[in-house]
Amino acid sequence: MSQDTNQKPQTKKRRKLDIWNKLAIGVLSIFLVGCISVFFILVNIINDPDGMQFVEGDLTTLSNSRIYDRNGNLISELGQEIREDVTYDQIPQNVIDAFLSIEDSRYFDHNGFDLPRFLASALTNLRSGSFAQGGSTLTMQLIDNTFTSQQEKKIESEQGSISAFTKIKLKIQEIYLSLIAEQTLNKEEIFDYYVNRIWFGSGDNTRGIQKAAKYFFNKDVSELNLSESAFLAGAINAPDTYNPLNNLYKTDQDYLANATSRRNTTLALMLQHGYITETEYSLAKNSKLEFALQYTNISSQDPNAPFIYQAVQEVIQLTGQDPGVVPMDIYTTLNPDVQKVAYDICAGNIVNFPIEQLDTGFAVIENHTGEVIAVGAGRTYYQDATKRDLSMEERQPGSSMKPLLAYSSTFDLLGWSTEHKINDHGEDYFHAGSNLQNSDRQYRGVVNLKTALGLSLNTPAAQAMIALVDETGYDYWIDFLKKLGYSEDTYTQFVEQYAIGGAEMYASPRQQASAYSMLANGGKRVEDHTIRKIVRRSDGKETSGDTTEYELISEEAAYMTSYLLENVVSGNYQNFNEILYSQNYTAYGKSGTSDWSTYGVQYGIPAGAARDEWSIGYTSDISVATWTGFSGENEALGYYFTNSLLFEATAFHITHYLLDYCQQFYDYNDIEKPSGVSNYNGGYIKTEFLSKGDSKVTGGNAKSEDEEDTEEEEQEEETTEEENTQEPTTPPTEPTVPEEPSDPTQDLQQQCINSGGTWQNGACIYQNTGNNGNTGMEETFRLDSLTLPDSRKRIL
User: Fold this and answer.
1) Which of 11, 194, 330, 493 is a Cys-bridge partner for 142, taking CB atoms 3.0 to 4.6 Å apart?
2) Radius of gyration for the chain, computed over Cα atoms and rounded to the nearest angstrom
3) Which alpha helices (H) appear in 485-611, and where do they start and end?
């Protein structure tokens, strides 16, 4: 047997993978798993049933959204009046070139998503640490205007903010919808829909390039020259910032300079991309934009215009879509009769405005439903250039905050009765560096809540608020203000000064009317809203209005606060609240004023002059909040409330008229006393605190020096007052505490004469010393206001 035959066959060794091959396989495996995961994530995002869906009709339809009042009657169609569509063939080449240069230079080359541009923008943003560079194509911008931005607003309104993941998700959906749009529509159609639906900054909520051409230059789009085309193309990035007409009434920045700079940027890009020559660039750049503007101030004749605008904004928040673009049937809460009255008031046809510059904003809201039935947007709203809705603009509300913050919760949290006694005395309650004063610079010693609210005393309100904060902490009141409906900028900065309308406490008339509505609705506030329901016409999808209910105080506390506010109206305090009194129904109310402190001196306004005047009035069914004052531009010209203007009490006459007029639509009744309220010392207390009683005096029993000197006089005046003052319709207070130290009318009359005025028919008349109607008085007497020395003012 041979040696070769006896040898065993050799086994071939398996080659082992080295570390690099293992690493490569691992990386490829991870990459493959990652790709599959990303694929499924993208599919999930794209097919999200709650996400954005491409509906061609939302882009291409020419149907209008229809708006109905509370009775189902058609009041407006959002279509031709806000949009005047033009075709691609009607648009001059200069306009097309300008848009492509500054928005999407590769528009006719990509399929809706420009990957190289997107990546380049992303790298630029990473290097700069910002998101200044946008990588969106013109098609993506069309999808953004129609779907994405509206969806973001909807999410913000529902959740308060948008997470980074949600933003990425929406951007992926936007890219996908852009690809679908490019497969469905041609480039010319997409460009056409884009320029017909975007906002250029034109007034009256109008959209599209044709409306913009007429608004700014009073010409057809086909007549636009190179400079005008470049301006309009550049303006869409920030329409308000680049609107040169804002210089007519805004002073915070030079809008004409902004617009000119943006136009020149567009022209430079047109030159860079070869659309214009050096000569054309130079001529257009050196032309004066202000000379091209041909704006005509056109007054709106539609009384419903401000309400419709508020409703449109609410629709966008609720649906995430713009009814100016997406056809809908919108059913609102509008009472057209009351809105017509609001229009006539603003026009000066019902209530007298002493001087033309005095402005107003107000809102009327149903207490039990939260429905906004009418708004007064201001005396200049209906002029096209402004469109500043003063029913929504925030101002300092002054003492109108006292019932809401300082007193209403004391009945629940501290067990106070309506006869609770507080020592009205000077002290630096807010650590401002000086003692808090009342508006008349007097202290009255121990007073009950009726007197404190009736005379709108500041120190009792301050002491009540401090006691409440001590009881609950600050977070409670931040949440309380949020539930009352105030803005985030306001409620997050809560301090005790808010109780008298100081510090950063700001409110709009609509917010104040909504906040007060809870006092007639058992302590619950229903979210104020203009929308009952929305039906999208393309698929019948229905969306309801926001009727969220917030519980703030008990039903008993709401009644007890209203009891005090009825006395404010009927108690004959001679501080204008009595104007709301009616023999036909029970009215409840509170006034409020704020002053300039020393900030107005730069405008020639005396230190401490009154700035804002408020009148809040409500019945069992509706609440009305009225603000009067001056616009920012008129304030800069030196306008303020002189004594004579304050004594006109314009805000109170507006509130009274609206309460009277609305009686025909409602059955006003006294607010019903709940079973959990018991009689106590001539007033009321919650039954749960009845056995404990309410004998403690807040702030101690000490009397001020002024009160000690005049105590005997006040007791004599109290006797006279009890004999002559008409009893209110609600149970009287126990007659052991002086309700009023003297007749305020006599005090005002004497001060008027001492300060150089003439007392005529219950008003102090001054001779004007300047062209603006102001008297140049060093101090304006205020019946119901106080601004802290360190209070900061928000310039509106």
Assistant:
1) 194
2) 33
3) 488-491, 509-517, 555-570
The pLDDT confidence band at residue 116, using thresholds 50, 70 and 90, is confident
Q: CB-based burial of residue 772 (10 Å sphere; 0-12 exposed, 13-18 middle, 19+ buried)?
A: middle
Least Cα distance to 320 among 182, 548, 166 occurs for 166
Buried b (16+ CB within 10 A) or exposed e, 325-359: bbbbbbbbbbbbbbbebbbebbeeebbebebebbb
Bigger pLDDT: 568 or 246?
A: 568
What is the mean predicted confidence (pLDDT) over 312-333?
89
Of 431, 433, 458, which Cα lies nearest the Cα of 444? 458
| Band (137; pLDDT cuts 50, 70, 90) | confident
For residue 364, the cross-strand partners are: 374, 624
Average pLDDT over residues 376-397: 84
Q: Evaluate whether 784 touches 399 at the Cβ level (below 8 Å).
A: yes
List the beta bridge partners of residue 544: 533
Q: Are 794 and 487 in contact (CB under 8 A)?
A: no
In angstroms, the Cα distances linking 605 to 270, 357, 602, 614, 656 are 49, 15, 7, 20, 30
| Cα 163 from Cα 351, distance rounded (Å) | 49
Q: Could you give the CA distance from residue 355 to residue 773 in angstroms, rounded to a whole number?
A: 8
What is the CB neighbour count within 10 angstroms for residue 727? Answer: 10
- Which residues, at least 6 apart from 690, have a Cβ–Cβ distance to it below 8 Å? 678, 680
pLDDT score recorded for residue 314: 95
Contacts of 172 (CB under 8 A, 6+ apart): 42, 45, 46
Q: State mean pLDDT over 34-40.
A: 61
**What share of the chain has pLDDT > 90, as a percent?**
55
Q: Where do we find the tokens 């005095």?
A: 358
- Structure confidence at residue 143 (pLDDT): 83
Backbone angles phi, psi at 535, to 5 degrees: -125, 115
Distance, in Å, from the CA atom of 319 to the CA atom of 498, rounded to the nearest integer, reads 34
DSSP state of 13: P
Q: Is the dihedral of CA 100, 105, 111, 117 positive or negative?
A: negative
Give which of 224, 257, 262, 253 is closest to 101, Cα–Cα.
262
CA distance 19 to 702: 89
Q: 515 pLDDT exceeds 70? A: yes
The arithmetic mean of pLDDT across residues 286-305, rounded, is 83
Task: Check pLDDT > 80 for residue 94.
Answer: yes
Residue 5's alpha-carbon distances to 1, 9, 11, 488, 604, in angstroms, are 7, 10, 16, 95, 122
Model confidence at 381, pLDDT cuts 50, 70, 90, reads confident
CA distance 150 to 383: 28
Reply yes or no on whether the pLDDT at 83 is more than 80.
no
Residues 58-80, mean pLDDT to the nearest whole number: 80
**Contact (Cβ atoms closer than 8 angstroms) between residue 613 and residue 627:** yes
Mean pLDDT of 638-651: 94
- The residue count for the chain: 796
Would strands 622-629 and 359-366 be described as parallel, antiparallel, or unpaired? antiparallel
Structure tokens at 504: 């950063």
Dihedral pair phi/psi, residue 759, rounded to 5°: -85, 115
Q: What span, in angstroms and rounded, lies between the C-alpha atoms of 648 and 123?
A: 63
- Under 8 Å between Cβ of 360 and 280: no
CA triplet 275, 278, 282: central angle to 5 degrees? 110
Query: What DSSP letter does each residue of 435-473 carry, written as one string?
Result: ----TTS---EEEEHHHHHHTT-HHHHHHHHHHHHHHH-
pLDDT at 720 over 50: no
Nearest CA to 275 out of 226, 233, 228 is that of 226
